[in-house]
What does this fold into?
Amino acid sequence: MRNRTKAQEYLTAFVMLLPYILSFCVFFAYPLVKAFIISFQNFSFLGDAPPNFVGLANYKEALTNKMFLDSILNTLYYSVLVVPTQLIIALILAVVVNDKVKFKEFFRTTYYLPTVTSPVAVSIIFLFLYKTDGLVNQILSHIGITPRNWFNEPSFVMPAIVTVAVWGSVGFYMVTFLSGLSTIPDQLYEAAEVEGAGEFIKLVKITVPLLKPMIFFNTVVSFISTLQMFDLSYIIGGSDGGPMGKAMTMVVMIYRTAFKEFNMGVASAMAFVVFGIIFLLTLIQRKLFGEEMSY
Amino acid sequence: MQKKENTYGIGVKIVLYTICILWALITLVPYLIAVITSLKPVEDVTKFSVDFGKLSFSSYKYITTEFPFMRWLFNSFVVAVAVTVGNLLFNSMAAYALARLNFPFKKVVFYIIIGTMMIPGQVLLIPIYLILNKLGWIDSYKGLIIPWLVSAFYIFFMRQYFLTIPKDLEEAALIDGLSRFGIFFKIFLPLSLPALATQAIFIFVGNWNSFMWPSIIASSEELYTLPVGLNSFYGQYYQFWNQVLAGAILLSLPTIIVFVAFQKYFVRGIVTTGLKE
It folds into this structure.
């Protein structure tokens, strides 16, 4: 009897896990192994020849491809601009709307809207706003800045995309900061007030230090997501990476190599290089912020 | 609370409200300009001023009747709804097994689920494409839907939620002769409505906005989802900004409506998934 119920429980568990197991095998485990194998193969989707083993040739080709190396630098440049900018703005907004301002629900809702808006729609709206004769330039020309097509100039395209990315995702990080703020006990602030601390002192001495784990968590999440940026760069810059390839990111490069040039082997090698970069940078971040914050 | 409000000096208040209003403007003005421009005739799109007499819905009418926008909208709905329903059922089932049942290798399965979340998706993109190609699922609803029916992250999320449901409830039901599946459908799912709502909204919005995968899988125009369709429309008709922006509004509206209607779940979802239980 006991054995029967045990067997029954195993069977139930198996049936309930079956969709996950199938999906894991077909869309995760097998592809992961396959991707690794393809990265060592001469695998052109268009060619008739069967794939053959080429050793590290794909990795060599990837790492000597100027466009791919540039895409790594472009992506890092993008990350370094986006991560601090969006976290600082998100933190300021969270502190402000966490306070006793009127209509804070309205402000919170508003700030979150870009986060649920399709990156395609967001890109298109900003393509319109940043046009040479667009509204941003019309406003800027009043303060003496020459109108330019922000997305069409090599030195401006990435910073311009950064503004779009920050606009699009600040709301998400604001909400995570809000959840962190809600865990800080009020008594701490009250005690500081008794001591005569002003708003700024409370912010620097209480809020920021106590939010440190949340800041770390958001930095990692934000950093990983910027390293995987695809949509904005692809929609704004196309598969050529915009003016002089300055908007080309690592993932757009993988996409281009795999699905425009159908060079699956090299694209897979690039994907593993990107994986390695993300892994390495996450480890470094972990070391920098200290081990005790193991979120 | 009353006391605290009084302690704010006027200077602090000015700073707080300036920041609030400034960012609200930065957020809302682009939408506002997009909506107004989508209502303008094409010759007025770059004019700063608005001639209210000339505003009309004609670009919306034009793109939805002369171009397959309605078809793309329909595709987006079918795919996003199917993916959402699949995730709600399959993730909860797996989560129930992990939270409440005993079976061999339970720990291993759990760690695999956690581990899969750490692999960046781009690594899997190419082989999944090749598998779907072999199955003949490229350019089909199957290819757009089936790879996304299960999510490791939300299995984890639902498991955490199920762990908070009291065991007594379940034992009573077992003694009453309810099967495990009965318990799952009649007790656990109804008790988990807030968690299910959170998951549903995130999965729906995420899938609705997804761009890379549909642009790889949907190669014929009839199978485009709205983001893919709009991007290709923009590529050809970029000078018709009133129509392009009408398309962008059409694409944004459903997720904005879902968000505003269910925002309490959104915030709770981020709070509970961002923090440990």
Notes: The longest helix of chain B spans residues 69-100. Chain B touches chain A through 93 residues (CB under 8 Å).
